[in-house]
Design brief:
The chain is 28% helix and 20% strand. By secondary structure, it is α/β, with parallel strands linked by helices. It has a 7-stranded parallel sheet, sandwiched between helices. It has a 7-stranded mixed sheet with strand order 9-10-8-11-14-13-12. Helix 5 runs parallel beside helix 10. The radius of gyration is 20 Å and the shape is globular.
């Protein structure tokens, strides 16, 4: 296959997720970054803000988000905050640019679901028919369909799954899909995140003196990622497909999910623990449960079902687009305890965005994503 340059732009390149996309693309075989943007730091060289990019992106200068330079890109990774991506996407799509959105603006097939979770009217609901949910291991068919539309010349949009959501989905989906879980019982998700998940802009909660040596829950009782998790679980439980571009007709009932996020004093990483009540007539033991997880991720190069008795930890996936998962049965309480560890900036954001872009552009799914964690 002939190698060619795919011209990439990164909006919000000075944020943690945007900078991670930039880092990944430095070693990507085909995505070449030509344009980076930041409204607050326009005019500066990225290497002056992130010295790690010296010798790699020495002459790459930040432009404002509204720059016309983005319109000449093949793909734009949108690392801007929620509510901002949907303001910029229309002009990019009109120019034929495919958008990989790291925010929540295009994760929902129905504008009403987005508006209920984020309490703002969707600014570009007409573009939702061009978009699909970006979680490759559980939505590959829809992304393949989007890739076919892209190959036919259509500018498309991927709404990449969030970091908490990705970990929660990867942990639970094999058990849900196998029919082991009671569809009417509440599912409890406890998830712990590193501080980079809150973004680069400091706050009272994320200031070093507040976050160090402290662990806290937040966002109760209804964190904005809860609807995304509940809808994904509901789709799996019902056996329905995730709505693809042009098809928002399928909307199964959301699962009953109690989601509690926690902030931990580490830079990167998410550990999600999901408690799944067994279905009344479920016939499952630890061996059959583990087989379901191995089968679910057997073809994945980026998600690993760990051996029985080995539990995921964030250090083993730090700095990568990889995920480690496992599950165990508590027969006395009739509960499956499922876990996933990811890097919130890797598999939870930038790495998954590049993975989705690889699929849309017909590349190897893990192109540019072969890194191994430096910690174990």
């Amino acid at each position: 296959r002939m190698v060619y340059m795919i011209k990439a732009g990164i909006m919000g390149a000075t944020g943690y997720a945007g900078a991670e996309v930039l880092r990944i693309c430095a070693n990507h075989p085909e995505f070449k970054v030509a344009v980076i943007t930041s409204d607050s730091e326009a005019g500066q060289q990225i290497a002056d803000i992130y010295p790690a990019f010296r010798g790699i992106y020495d002459n790459l200068v930040l432009e404002p988000h509204a720059t016309d330079s983005l319109l000449s890109c093949d793909v734009v990774f949108m690392g801007v905050p929620h509510k901002a991506g949907m303001l910029h996407a229309p002009r990019l799509v009109k120019a034929g640019v495919t958008c990989i959105d790291l925010s929540a603006d295009f994760r929902f097939a129905h504008a009403a679901d987005y508006e209920a979770a984020y309490h703002v009217q969707h600014a570009a609901p007409e573009l939702l028919e061009r978009a699909t949910f970006g979680q490759p291991e559980t939505n590959r068919a829809a992304l393949d369909e989007l890739a076919a539309r892209h190959a036919a010349g259509e500018a498309v949009i991927v709404g990449c799954a969030g970091c908490y959501v990705t970990a929660s989905i990867l942990a639970a989906t094999p058990a849900l899909a196998a029919g082991f879980v009671d569809p009417n019982a509440p599912i409890i998700v406890d998830a712990i995140s590193g501080i980079t998940g809150a973004g680069r802009k400091p706050s009272a909660r994320t200031h070093y003196c507040s976050g160090d040596e402290s662990l806290e829950a937040y966002g109760l009782p209804f964190h904005r990622h809860q609807p995304e998790i509940a809808l994904s679980y509901g789709r799996t439980l019902s056996g329905a497909h995730i709505p693809v571009a042009g098809d928002a007709s399928v909307r199964p009932a959301p699962a009953h999910v109690i989601f509690t996020p926690h902030l931990a004093p580490l830079k990167r990483g998410i550990l999600a623990t999901v408690y799944l009540p067994l279905a009344k007539n479920a016939e499952v033991n630890d061996a059959s449960l583990h087989r379901a997880y191995e089968k679910a991720y057997a073809k994945s190069n980026l998600v690993t079902a760990l051996p029985q008795g080995v539990w995921p930890k964030t250090g083993a996936v730090a700095g990568t687009a990889r995920a480690h998962v496992n599950a165990s049965l508590n027969p006395n309480e009739r509960i499956i305890v499922a876990m996933a560890a990811i890097d919130n900036l890797g598999k939870g954001a930038a790495g998954q965005a590049v993975q989705c872009a690889n699929i849309v552009f017909g590349l190897a799914e893990d192109a540019g994503l072969g890194g191994v964690a430096c910690a174990s």
